[in-house]
Design a protein that fits this description.
The complex is a heterodimer.
Chain A lengths: L7 E9 L8 H17 L2 E8 L6 H9 L4 E6 L10 H13 L1 E8 L2 H11 L5 E11 L5 E7 L4 E7 L5 E5 L17 E5 L7 E7 L13 E5 L6 H14 L2 E4 L1 H5 L20 E5 L5 H4 L7 E6 L12 E4 L2 H29 L3
Parallel strand pairs in A: 1-2, 1-4, 2-3, 3-9, 4-8, 5-8, 11-12, 11-13, 13-14, 14-15
Antiparallel strand pairs in A: 5-6, 6-7
Helix pairs in contact in A: 3-4, 5-8
Chain B lengths: L2 E4 L2 E2 L7 H9 L8 E2 L1 H14 L5 E6 L4 H11 L1 E9 L8 H13 L5 E5 L7 H9 L3 E2 L2 E7 L8 E7 L5 E7 L2 E5 L11 H11 L3 E6 L10 E6 L6 E2 L9 H9 L4 E2 L11 E4 L2 H14 L7
Parallel strand pairs in B: 1-4, 1-6, 4-5, 5-12, 6-11, 7-11
Antiparallel strand pairs in B: 2-3, 8-9, 9-10, 14-15
Helix pairs in contact in B: 2-3, 3-6, 4-5
The chains are: A alpha/beta, B alpha/beta.
The structure holds flavin-adenine dinucleotide.
The site of flavin-adenine dinucleotide has 27 residues of chain A, from α6, α7 and β14.
Chain lengths: ~350, ~300
Amino acid sequence: MSFDGAIVEPTVLVLADKSAGDWSTVTLELLGDAELLANKVGWTVKVMVFAAPGAVRDEDARKLAAHGAKEVHVWEHEKFGPVLVPAQYTHTLRSYLDESMPRLILCPSTPLWVEGVAAAVAPYGALVASDCVSVKLNVRSDLELVRNYWNQKTHATWTFSGQRPWVVCLHPGVAGVGRPNPALSAPVERHQAIVLEENVETLEWFPPHPSRLDLVEAERVVAGGRGIGGPEGFAELTQLAELLHAAVGASRVAVDLGWIPYSRQVGQTGKTVRPRLYMAFGISGASQHLDGMRDAETVVAVNLDKEAAIFSVAELGLVGDARAVIEELVRLLKPSERAEGARAGAAAALSNV
Amino acid sequence: MKVLVCVRSDLPAPMARVDNIQRLMEEWSAEWAGVLEPSCRSALQLAKDLSGPSGGFTALSYGRGECRAALEVARAYGAVDAVHLQSAEGSLRHDGNTIARALAAWVGERSFDVVVCGNSSGVGPVPALVAGHLGWPVVTRVDGFKKFLPQDDSFRAIELTQRLDAGWKRQVLARYPVVLSVQSGFIPPQYVSVRRRKEAVHGLASNVTECELPVWTDGHAPAVLQALTPPKPRTKRTAVPDAKSSAADRLKSLMGPAATKKVEKPKEDEGPRVVEGSAVELAEELLRFLRKKEFLSNS
Ligand SMILES: Cc1cc2nc3c(=O)[nH]c(=O)nc-3n(C[C@H](O)[C@H](O)[C@H](O)COP(=O)(O)OP(=O)(O)OC[C@H]3O[C@@H](n4cnc5c(N)ncnc54)[C@H](O)[C@@H]3O)c2cc1C
């Protein structure tokens, strides 16, 4: 299966993620980048999806077309469920590459996608770059990519040239999703995938729980401080976290009072988080707490004190009783939006990390 | 069971700045006293757990003098062999593709059952690339080691827990040979005493196997590092024109998918939007906000 200068096709293959219900944001971001590159040099944008039978409907595929896909290949198997397990698609990906080697593969830079793709393409001698923030073709048609480097302390610009296939894993949330063009369409081909997991067998699944969701990797964090009043407040916060598919965080005071374990502390002496959404309930916003969450993309805070420092970093500040707002949110989300919220959250979390 | 653990050194956190990283990549000097990269500490702990109280494991590092720090800690954790891989052209420091090739070539000539790697961000491709080159399975994000299965020659395997996405986990049965990777903090490392560390420093001088790899080439151009720069946010595409942007920007945004806008933090003087009201009103306001930001669907 090694790649010995075999013909590489003028295509960009985007690996699309729909494991959590809808297309993950990063999938649409990848398509935006793929379209720009393809338009520049006349490549074709193809999309490959691994999904349970029936999980990708024609209207789902149309959404990909509206974002730039020219062909959609859906590989179906009962095992492709809501949880992404890379080893399950390695065989299918390799079979596809044996038939048709794209010039460039774009995939989400999340641990499990990187694992699956890197393991699949290594035997072809592909060049792989993960944690990329941008990708373009330079004047010599070499691939120029910028990636996070050294714990995100620097950006490194690399070039890939030569004839072997290139793989770029794009960091979710950096490229943004462009405006779709609903007039576009793309043919959809459905294939039966073969899953070979000879050497790693799943014995048992453990479903997610907000208190186990890793704070550092979570795309959404709901955090509580002294203002949520006690362990019962955290029990309600955990319910809210479950509905939003968020991880639970806390201020040091809440940890010191024994309301929640230290592993949940955010801040200078706790964890540093960079979620897309950070919701602070009853947290004053001391500088040591802000140190751990100031890089969150969107901050929402609920506090009784209009002058609380947390409001200075919040995009939306709500002046009110934290427990009462949490209770209301749980009530409003539970009946109608529970599934929706969890699905959207799962999608976001899957495209994160 | 023969266990290999791959470890690498890092710059101490306060020194990890672009200028220092740039200098370190250009030339190594003794002034760069590295520290063990944190996920490698978890990798060492896993290697130690896997090899058991009586067994030892081999630690390997690559690059230049800075890898000494990693090998010292590995010795303190109980590595019986320390291997330093380097390549004539020095490319083993930068590019994960070349590193993976070199590691796989070296491992392929030996008979390890398990190769353990640290993976700080979780998105480093090296462990999976190594596995792919070797034709071995890989289990990334190992969260715990449960037990060995009864050993016989036809079926040799271990039970591990693996973290998947969105908080899911699974328990797996992985057959040897296998590549495993761990992120920092997930296999809690035991404390290594200062005495053991000192002994390791003394013992290391005479006990590192130096391996010089031939310049590797497969006839294709390698990845080339062009520049290191301070991180700069990328210009982000948007689907809808921002009401706050200028008419020209809005028009540009409406004109096509390639239209872009700069991501801007809210201006200091604009401040946050602070809303007062009853709990119901506040909760509804919050849900409207989450929908607008696409954290919840609009339906
Ligand atoms: C060296 C050092 C390291 C530290 N490290 C950390 C760290 O890692 N993380 C961290 O968080 N802190 C850390 N701290 C502590 C930090 O300085 C603050 O004391 C702490 O963050 C405050 O927690 P809090 O906001 O929950 O409590 P408080 O400061 O007591 O604030 C409680 C807030 O809740 C509001 N409130 C009260 N009742 C309600 C209600 N019913 N509804 C809504 N709001 C209400 C109040 O208006 C107030 O703003 C550190 C301190 C030091 C000195």
